[in-house]
Amino acid sequence: MTRRLPSTGGDDRVVDETGCDTSDIFIIHRIFRWGYRELPRLVRAVPAGDLERATTVGNAVELVDRGLHVHHEGEDELLWDRLERREPGCAMHVDVMKAQHARVSELLDVADGLLAEWRTTADPATGERLAAALDDVGTTLGVHLGREEADIVPVAARVLSQAEWEELGEHGRGALPKEAMPVQLGLMIDAVPEGEREEWLRANLPAPVRLLWALLMRRKYTAWHRALFPEGMPALV
After folding, report:
1. On the chain, which terminus has fewer CB atoms closer than 10 Å, C or N?
2. For the segment 213-228, what is each residue's pLDDT rounded down to a tens digit?
3. Counting Cβ atoms within 10 Å, is residue 158 exposed (0-12), middle (13-18) or buried (19+)?
4. Dihedral, CA atoms, 182, 184, 189, 191, nearest 10 degrees?
């Protein structure tokens, strides 16, 4: 059931038709859980001194790390204050989210520094430190995403409008480089259960984007994941 909320100050205007579909965040979270499960393994498997392979894997690490930075920035800028103003009882959960974001950011900074060193040397010792740092991100993130799905997403679904929720996706698309779009979209599609993908594509992508995916972007995404996983890409589950 929708309701009309008055302006509460800040950047909020009068908000009509509160209540939104938040299901896309579970797809995004599935990608991050997958990424920080698979990336450490890929880093550890790079042969000593193999700069070509280190570049391939390192670029994937950079893409996923950047995606996580952007995702959290969007929530920090667009989500927390609105939830606190409209659902004061959620403030405790928001404080937990902010603290967890800060910790994940610290861990990503460590990983990013090691990545810059490792992909120019393919040194196994540095690679192990990088993989361990990515493991730390994944462990901390796993706790955070579970709490967010349990404590934050249901509130957002109730008190935000669809337009406000979609600002999060717009922020992510605007902050990531355009050349990353085929991989970003491909991972989202693969994170949707196979039997639901066609319906998801029709519901979430305009016809021109579906055509662009079929004609161009899918080929680029396939080349990306085949280079990264020559033996077959692990499922995004």
Report:
1. N
2. 999 999 999 999 999 9
3. middle
4. 150
